[in-house]
Design goal:
CATH class of the largest domain: Mainly Alpha
Distance between the termini: 18 Å
Strand content: under 5%
Number of strands: 0
Structural class: mainly alpha
Number of domains: 2
Number of helices: 8
Helix content: 55-70%
Shape: globular
Order of helices and strands: HHHHHHHH
């Protein structure tokens, strides 16, 4: 059970209900992390706006973005994001083998490009001291805008993971954890 209530649109004052609409507009449903954040609607919409950029406007290719999100979720032991993004990743063409490799933390057999992005993600999470050789290799692959988007994506999902940890956000009742 979450430490704060999962709020719905009807729980908000009429003057605040537009925040709910803004958050749900692109997502097609209202994720539980944002239902908890609605306890402070302005914070919820600002976090969601960054998430909308990361998910729908970033320069990262969809498959790489999802591999990075799954890596963050796995490294931070966040079942909510790992479960939700496993199906999203599959929809964008990430193979079940790659998803299972990330889940099991056995990524040495993956293609080099995927390994590089997973390694970069892990470095951001654990130390934020990216070795020059890794930074330069990623920069060669996706350029300056891409490396900014990559770093924003990683840190955004770290933010969400910590929010969910603090407020003990759980999966929706009809979902089983994939972690």
């Amino acid at each position: 059970m979450a430490r704060l209530p999962y709020l719905k649109k009807s729980d908000l004052q009429l003057s605040e209900q537009h925040y709910y609409d803004e958050i749900s507009e692109k997502r097609g449903f209202f994720p539980r992390p944002f239902s908890v954040l609605l306890n402070n609607p302005k914070a919820a919409v600002n976090v969601a706006n960054l998430g909308s950029y990361v998910r729908f406007e970033s320069s990262l290719p969809d498959q790489l973005r999802e591999i990075v999100i799954l890596t963050v979720a796995r490294e931070m032991n966040n079942a909510y994001e790992f479960t939700h993004h496993s199906s999203i990743a599959k929809n964008f063409g990430v193979s079940s083998d790659i998803i299972e490799s990330i889940k099991n933390k056995i990524t040495e057999t993956l293609p080099e490009k995927e390994q590089l992005f997973i390694e970069f993600t892990k470095e951001v999470i654990t130390s934020a001291k990216i070795p020059d050789i890794l930074y330069n290799r990623i920069n060669e692959l996706i350029g300056t805008q891409g490396i900014v988007d990559l770093t924003v994506t990683i840190t955004y999902y770290c933010l969400l993971a910590r929010i969910m940890d603090v407020f003990e956000v759980t999966l929706e009742p009809n979902q089983d954890s994939l972690l």
